[in-house]
Design goal:
Layout: H1 10-17, E1 26-28, E2 35-37, E3 42-46, E4 51-54, E5 64-67, H2 71-79, H3 82-87, E6 94-95, H4 97-106
Parallel strand pairs: 4-6
Antiparallel strand pairs: 1-2, 3-4, 3-5
Amino acid sequence: MPPRRAIGNPKLRNLLMSRGTGHIPIRTCISCNARRNKKDLIKLILNDDGMVIRDTDGKGEGRSAYVCPDEACLRSLRTNKRLKRAFRTGGVVSVHPDFFRAVNNAGTPGG
């Protein structure tokens, strides 16, 4: 964290904040609450029919959620209310049947 006096000075702030590798987006898994690099998680979005699908290109519109590619995290999506909370919907949120098949076949996280 930069010193408080550096926040008002743009030159000093840029010098202090430019050290390192740059910005790495961190996201939280909705199943296990683990904080990981965005590239290590699977991005989920709601399609027009209200079904949860995997956002393969990362350009899906609207609210999204992230989940670990771990078997336990994916299994818990079927049983708990975390998807409903993550997408802020009052109705039933269902996962597209092809989602689990695609994740099991791919075996790698998308981004």
